[in-house]
Amino acid sequence: MHTHHNHSHTPLKGRNLLFSIVLNILITASQVVGGLVSGSLALLSDALHNLTDVISLVISYIANKLTGKEASTNRTFGYKRAEIIAAFVNASTLIIIAVLLIIEAVKRFFDPQTIQSELVIWLSAFGILANGLSVLLLKKDAARNINMKSAYIHLLTDMLASVAVLIGGLVMKYFQLFWVDSVLTFLIAVYLVFVGFDLLKTSTKMLMLFTPENIDIKEIVKEVHKVAKVNKLHHIHVWCLNDDELHLEAHLDFKEDVTLTEFNIVLEKIEIILHDKFGINHVNIQPEYNKEDPKDYIVQD
Questions:
Q1: Would the CA dihedral through 85, 194, 26, 68 be positive or negative?
Q2: Distance (Å, rounded) from C-alpha 159 to C-alpha 50?
Q3: How far is CA 180 from CA 7, 108, 255, in A?
Q4: Rounded distance between C-alpha atoms, residue 76 and residue 282, angstroms
Q5: Mean pLDDT, to the nearest integer, of 42-65?
Q6: Which residues pair with 288 in a beta bridge?
Q7: Could you write out the DSSP letters of every residue in the chain?
Q8: Which pairing describes strands 282-288 and 230-240: parallel, antiparallel, or unpaired?
Q9: How open is the CA angle 294-299-300, to the nearest 5 degrees?
């Protein structure tokens, strides 16, 4: 039997999100052009950082629009895992490009090139203003939605990265220390690898249907076994469908041959335990009595 607890989410302000996307596209495009013209790798690496956030914001916007779209017979989960796939692809490309930037930054450090610092200063200042405006626009939504909170934090770090590039531009202009550009590029790229690897690890675990790190299977079994008439919970699978939905499916062996009405009562008690103590909101349990099958917690099919 399958049941689930519904979650009511406050609708996101699509207009604010769309405006933030447009702003960040402008930032990214101007920084790419400016980086190529000025010769600043730091500006290009900051542009890469902004590009990842554009993708993240676009995904959030599409997900917001698809929220009301119902599942169908050939898409029984709808589009709920699209965000995870996009995050995996985004993280993979982010790491590859960041590593290439690190290699180039090391080369540039030993062979510094003259950089048009004026352009770096103006474009980084534009990045600070535009990202700052995006942060203000998304602040309220970030307090209510985990995806928006993630976008909000990324935009905040973008703004801080632009501040670092601005400082670097000022140092290059007034002190002619062009190697600073390579150091900033290296630091931003290392940060991108760190962020990208964390996102890659998280999305991979979700795609592989791994048990979430905050879930203790043995603790679940221990709590479920406290319910009257339950013999053994086994053949357990727990996984995240997306950020909002945590699923459990398992076999439940009973001590006696219960009726369907009795099973429903037991199931309701188990659902409350799983939801309140473990945050599991989709439960699918197969009832059994005297069935000859493996009774281990985890059974390899």
A1: positive
A2: 9
A3: 49, 10, 71
A4: 14
A5: 78
A6: 253
A7: -EEE-----PPP-HHHHHHHHHHHHHHHHHHHHHHHHHT-HHHHHHHHHHHHHHHHHHHHHHHHHHTTPPPBTTBTTTTTTHHHHHHHHHHHHHHHHHHHHHHHHHHHHHS-----HHHHHHHHHHHHHHHHHHHHHHHHHHTT-HHHHHHHHHHHHHHHHHHHHHHHHHHHHHH--THHHHHHHHHHHHHHHHHHHHHHHHHHHHHTTPPPTT--HHHHHHHHTTSTTEEEEEEEEEEESSSS-EEEEEEEEESS---HHHHHHHHHHHHHHHHHHH---EEEEEEESS--S---SS---
A8: unpaired
A9: 125
Cβ atoms of residues 95 and 193 within 8 Å: yes
Q: Which position has the token pair 């399958």?
A: 2
Side chain identity, residue 62: I
Mutual angle of helices 117-142 and 146-175, in 10-degree steps: 160
Residues 6+ positions from 83 with CB-CB distance below 8 Å: 59, 63, 147, 242, 243
Task: Kindly indicate the confidence band of residue 134, based on its pLDDT and cuts at 50, 70 and 90.
Answer: confident
Predicted TM-score (pTM) of the model is 0.77
Between the ranges 10-14, 67-71, 195-199, 235-239, where is the mean pLDDT highest?
A: 235-239
Query: Residue 207: exposed, middle, or buried by beta-carbon count in 10 A (0-12, 13-18, 19+)?
Result: middle
Strand order in the sheet with 246-254: 2-4, 282-288, 246-254, 230-240
* Residue position matching structure tokens 């995240």: 240
Q: Rounded mean pLDDT of 57-77?
A: 75
Q: Is residue 11 pLDDT above 50, yes or no?
A: no
80 φ, ψ to 5°? -65, -20
